[in-house]
Structures are given as C-alpha cells and as structure tokens.
Amino acid sequence: MIQAKNITYKIGSKTILKDISVNFEAGKINLILGPNGAGKSTLVKVICNQLKPQEGTVFYEGLSIKKTSVAELAKVRAVLSQNTELAFPLKVKEVVMMGRYPHFTVNPTAKDENAIQEAMRFFEVDEMADRDYLTLSGGEKQRVHFARVVSQIWYPSENGCRYLVLDEPLTFLDVHYQFQFMHKLRELLKQQDLVIVGVVHDLNLAAKFADHLVLLNHGELLAAGSKDEVLNAENMKAAYRLEPIIHTDERGMYLFFE
Amino acid sequence: MDLTEHIFMEIRLPRAILCIFVGASLAVGGTLLQALFRNPIVEPGLIGTSCGAAFGAALYFALGATFGFNVGKWTLPLAACLGALLSTGLVFFLSQSRNSGKSSIVALLLTGIAINALFLSGVGFLSYIARDPQARSIVFWNLGTLSGANWTSVLIVGISTVGTILISLRYSKHLNALMIGEEEAQFLGVNIKSLKWKILLINVIMVAVATAFVGVISFVGLIVPHLLRIINGSDNRFLIRNSALLGGILLCVADLISRMVLRPAELPIGIVTSVVGVPIFIFLLQRKNYFF
Fold first, then answer.
1. Looking at the partner chain, which of B39, B174, B186 has a beta carbon nearest the beta carbon of A87?
2. B263 burial class (0-12, 13-18, 19+ CB within 10 angstroms)?
3. Which residues of A touch B177 (CB under 8 A)?
4. Residue A141 to residues A124, A135, B177, B259: CA-CA distances in angstroms?
C-alpha cells in the first residue's frame, strides 16, 4: 500500500497541493482524476519521490520514502511518465530492457531476458522487438513503454508489494488500445501484491475500470472512494464546472456533459 | 642500435601509440557527453573543455617565461588541464539554475558557447601580444600535432585513457537509461546529480590530458559515435568500447594523411580531421533514415 499523509506542496507562495491524504491499496486500480491544473501530476511526482513536499510524507508499506534510496525503490516501483521521448535510435527490445536496469549490474541475466520477452508478448510488441524505436507510431511507442515499466516489476519482490505508477498512460492510444490497456491492467492485478496508481482524464474509462478513485480540484482533495462516491453530480459540477448527466444501467455508469 | 631502429623506437612507435590513445580519449569523451546531454551534436569542444585547454596552453606559451611558471615537461599539460578544468567548471557553475540547482541542457550548451567565445578571444589576445616564435607555438598547438610524441607522453596519456575508459564503461547502463529522460532514469534507479558530475570529471580528465600533449583536434569526438550509431544503434555498452577502437584507428589514419600530403613537411592533424570530418558530419545530418 502507498500512503500519502498530509502532503502540502508549494512553488513559491502558490500552493499546488494542500494537505492531501490518500491511500492506494494493493490489488486495486487506483485512479486520480481532476480538471487541468488540479495537481494530479504533482501528486504523482510527490508519490514517486520526484518532488519533495514542504509538509507531509509518503509511505510505501509504512516505510517513509525519505528512507529509501533511488536504486532500492526502482527495484519494486515502475513509473510511466508523460511524453517520454528518446534522444537516440534504439531497438525496441533495448528500450524494454531498460526496465531491467535496476536488477542487474553490467550484463542482463537470463531472468532479465525472460522478463522482457514476456512483457513484450503481453503488450503485443514482441514482433517489433528489432525495429528502431524512433520509427514507431505514437501508440506503438506507448505500448513499448508499457512493456518497459511492467518488465521492471515483472517478478514478485521478496519483501512487500510492487508498485506501478502511470501518469496519463492513455494519451496516445485509440479507443481500442485504451480498453485493451485497462483490461491488461486488470489481468496484471491477478497478482495480489501489485499496487496500481494512475492519472486519467477520461471519466467514463475511470467509471468502468477503477476500483478506487481520488478526485482533486485546485490542489485539494475533493473526494475519494468508489465510483458512486466520487463520480456524483455534485462533485462533477464542482470540479469541471459543467452540468453532468449520469446514466446508470446494467452495463455500468456513464457520464455526459452539456 | 642503428639509425632506422632508433627512428622506429623513439619517433614512429611512440607517435603511433600516442595517436591510438588520443583518438580513443577524444572519441569516448564525445560519446560520454552526447549520452549525458542527450544530444548527438555535443562534443568536448562545446562545453568549454577544449577551448579551456587551449587557453591554458596559450597562457603558458605567451606568459610562462614572464611569470616563471615552470615545472619541467609537465608545465604544458598541467597548464592545459587547469585551463580545461577552469572553463568546464565555469560552464557548469554558470548554467546551474538558481532555484533548483539543476542545469538544463539548453542553458548548458548556450553557456558553453559563451565561455568558448571568451576563452577563444583570450587565446587570440595572447597570440596577439606574444612574440613571433611563441605566437607560432600557439598557432601550431591550436591546430593539433602529434610530432612531439615521446615515451613520457605515451605513458601519461595511456594511463589517463585506459583508466578513464574503464571507469566510464561502468556507467554505460546509467547513460543508456538517461536516453529516455532524466526523470525516467531516476525511476530506473539512477542518481542523476552524481552521475552528471562523475561523467563530466571523467570527460575533463580524459580530454584535457590528451589535448595537453597534442593540441586541439576537433571532430573526432563528434564523428566516431555517429558512425558507430549507424552501424549498431546507440547502446552505450557497445558504443563506449567501440568508440575507443574506432577513435584510435581513425586518428592513426588522419596522422598518416597529415604526414603524407605535404611530404617532407607535415600538415597539422587538426586540419586533417576538420577537412575530413565536416563533410562527413554534414552528410550524416542529411541522411534520411538517421534522424533524432
């Protein structure tokens, strides 16, 4: 479990996150929602130890993030950021192999090779393993990075959970791959020690796939809980300043705006 | 020992070996900087290292006698190393952002251009005030020449080259991770700040020591990693090792050319590498399937 306790983050005098406390549990798809500028990416960066909050602490299994080294954390926690671009031509399998870097010293072992093969097969990029990454389309690149971050935490950790943090993972994907990716996350969650935290913009995808939702607005925690608790008319209106139409039937919950 | 053997042992052989070491140093220096800055157009000349070394050397040529700064045969390499450390350090100090303590690549390169201009005008000023023979020394040194090779320079450059390359090989994985961005590299367990300083220090030592003995030789650090990337991609584990080999080979060929063209006189090797390097570089930039 990841716990963020009383996180306050400021840039100069501007408060980006104000006293945020949230829990992200294992075995669930935890999604962070909110309008532009709500502080979603900042919260993700604080959780990943990329930004140091002025107040509050992040705990991984009760252990403060301040007491963990970058190298140790990288063995159990993988992060997919927005807009990852490559500066030089590399083969797809070499990009995926980067995910295994925290686990070997100089040369990859058979275990590392096996992890990237399986991760590439899982995200259906194994057929482009030898292609130059720079020649891929936006969606293909994104799937290569999925394979990379998942290969990083492919094997269970000896002590505690594994963590997968995704900052707007669906941006470059068409509807087909958006759904496919969310289904794959579900499949990964069959491994009970996995904590998934993600930022998404699409409320309907969140309603369909999320187990736990966190809604931010102006750096404050507006709501947290199940989709019924978070995606209600009152919260949607407060966050997005639009009148929502919420439709529920036997297939699920759908949101429209006027 | 007869004359031929003497010429071979004391002039030809040390020159060839020095050439290999210098070529390896410059090429690996370029590879390291390109990986660190995530930019294929970077080479030691761009962040002030070469110009600083040139300035240190010019200072020694022009004013060394006046100031009585002299520690025997070590004086020139020492002056060049100090100059390189000064200029590279200055580039880094000035490009650090006040808020975050981080330096962005753009700030770094722009500061590099400014500092280069400053140190080059320093070299210009020194050759202007220098007396004729000293001014000629500065000019020759700035163009690069291997004619001063002897076993002492081979030993010193050899130790620096082999040592720094062995150390840099340990960081090839980290440099690979850097290709997908500084944040991502941190997520893969790389301590960016310490990596930056280590790679820069390795690079300053390797380039300044080589430059100190042979003068400014440009484009080797730029061309060699480019050629290798075309052959087998950008994996630094492969790139660093092979840059050393190809850098050594290419500089030997360049030295051969520099001795043959104007026989019995010698063409400065820096001119050869520039004349050969520039067209190759432009050709590389225009290749369609080689884009960044």
1. B39
2. exposed
3. 98, 101
4. 12, 9, 16, 50
Helices B75-95, B49-67: axis angle to 10 degrees equals 130
A110-117 long-range contacts (CB < 8 A, ≥24 apart) are A111/A155, A115/A151, A115/A154, A115/A155, A116/A147, A116/A151
Alpha helices (H) along chain B? 3-7, 13-37, 49-67, 75-95, 105-129, 132-143, 151-169, 172-178, 182-187, 192-214, 220-232, 236-260, 269-286
Least CB-CB distance to B179: which of A90, A99, A102? A90
Chain position carrying tokens 């639009």: A242
| Chain B partners within 8 Å of A79 (Cβ) | 184, 187
Say whether the ipTM exceeds 0.85. Answer: yes
Tokens of B289: 């399937």
Q: What is the pTM of this model?
A: 0.84
- Mind listing the pLDDT tens digit of every residue in chain B (292 residues)? 788 998 888 888 999 999 999 999 999 999 998 888 777 777 787 778 888 988 888 888 888 766 666 667 677 778 888 898 899 888 877 877 655 545 566 777 788 889 989 998 998 898 888 888 888 878 877 788 888 888 988 998 999 999 999 999 999 999 999 888 888 899 999 988 889 889 988 988 888 888 888 888 888 888 899 888 888 788 898 899 999 999 999 999 999 999 898 888 888 888 898 888 888 777 766 764 544 4
- Domains assigned to chain A: 2-257 (3.40.50.300)
Please name the CATH architecture into which domain B3-286 falls. Answer: Orthogonal Bundle (1.10)
Beta strand A77-80 with A244-249 is unpaired
| DSSP states of A167-198 | ESTTTT--HHHHHHHHHHHHHHTTSTTEEEEE
